[in-house]
């Protein structure tokens, strides 16, 4: 309703609860009843300290992913990463949040989807970060040259046989969700590339499904990386920090 009225939710609750519904509300409601995600209907989603434009073809940012930014802040403490890489950047979610956190940093976002990259470039421009954020089509870390102080990634981690809510399954891009039978296919491609891309003292932080901490940590150890698991606000394992 707030979107249909062109006002904030706070303003709606404080001043406009008795307003008549505009004609534009009913079509929005029908889209939601068909399980279209609210973020696609309104065209935006808040994440960390920024607001991002999103739409079909781009994975919708989730609050759970903020765990990666929190883990990065804890790791760097008083320092600030100067160079940031976001693998599978989608609409620029993690990279732009990190650049907002560290205003002197520059970064590269890589994604296989041109639709997602189009949103990422729009978001960088809207947030005044176009001169600090480069976006490139690519296949994970192939052709990427380091080193980077901070590497972020929210790869697909859902098993192909897992069930998802209709609003996710029927609307969000499957290429950003599914990663083989065990959901680990993309970690097997990303983690071996990390040692050559990480700067001394840097960290790579990967989002995981809450049951995958042991498997992803074991894969990291095989490639000489030391893992530390970080939990989300629901106290579930959500990110693995690698050094």
Explain this structure to me?
There is one protein chain. With 243 residues, the chain is of the alpha/beta class. The chain has a single domain (59-242), classed as Rossmann fold (3-Layer(aba) Sandwich). It is built from 11 helices and 9 strands. The N and C termini lie far apart (46 Å).
Estimated radius of gyration:
19 Å
Number of separate strands: 9
Largest beta sheet: what is the strand line-up? 5-4-3-6-7-9-8
- Given as residue ranges, the uncertain stretches (5+ residues, pLDDT < 50) are none
Strand content: 15-25%
| Count of all domains | 1
Specify the number of helices.
11
Q: Give the terminus-to-terminus CA distance.
A: 46 Å
Element-level helix/strand string: HHHHEEHEHEHEEHHHEHEE
- The CATH superfamily appears as Vaccinia Virus protein VP39
**What is the CATH fold-level name?**
Rossmann fold
Largest sheet: 7 strands, mixed
Shape: globular
Category by helix and strand content: alpha/beta
CATH class: Alpha Beta
Helix content: 25-40%
Task: Please give the CATH architecture.
Answer: 3-Layer(aba) Sandwich
| Average of per-residue pLDDT values | 96
SSE diagram, text form:
Layout (H helix, E strand, L loop, with lengths): L1 H4 L3 H7 L9 H9 L4 H5 L1 E4 L2 E4 L12 H11 L6 E5 L5 H9 L4 E6 L2 H13 L6 E5 L10 E6 L12 H4 L15 H6 L3 H4 E10 L5 H10 L4 E5 L5 E6 L1
Parallel strand pairs: 3-4, 3-6, 4-5, 6-7
Antiparallel strand pairs: 1-2, 7-9, 8-9
């Amino acid at each position: 309703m707030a979107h249909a009225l062109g006002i904030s939710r706070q303003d709606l609750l404080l001043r406009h609860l008795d307003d008549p519904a505009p004609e534009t509300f009913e079509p929005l409601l029908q889209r939601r009843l068909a399980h279209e995600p609210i973020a696609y209907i309104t065209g935006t989603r808040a994440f960390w300290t920024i607001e991002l434009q999103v739409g079909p073809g781009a994975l919708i940012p989730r609050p759970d992913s903020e765990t990666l930014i929190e883990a990065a802040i804890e790791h760097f403490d008083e320092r600030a990463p100067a160079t940031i890489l976001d693998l599978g950047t989608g609409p620029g979610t993690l990279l732009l949040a990190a650049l907002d956190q560290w205003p002197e940093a520059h970064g590269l976002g890589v994604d296989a989807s041109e639709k997602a990259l189009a949103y990422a470039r729009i978001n960088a421009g809207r947030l005044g970060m176009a001169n600090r954020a480069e976006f490139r089509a690519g296949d994970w870390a192939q052709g990427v040259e380091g080193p980077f102080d901070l590497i972020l990634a929210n790869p697909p981690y859902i098993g192909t046989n897992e069930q998802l809510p209709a609003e996710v399954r029927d609307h969000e891009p499957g290429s950003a969700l599914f990663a083989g039978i065990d959901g680990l296919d993309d970690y097997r491609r990303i983690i071996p590339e990390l040692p050559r891309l990480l700067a001394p003292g840097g960290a790579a932080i990967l989002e995981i499904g809450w049951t995958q901490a042991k498997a992803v940590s074991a894969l990291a150890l095989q490639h000489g990386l030391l893992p530390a698991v970080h939990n989300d606000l629901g106290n579930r394992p959500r990110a693995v920090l690698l050094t």
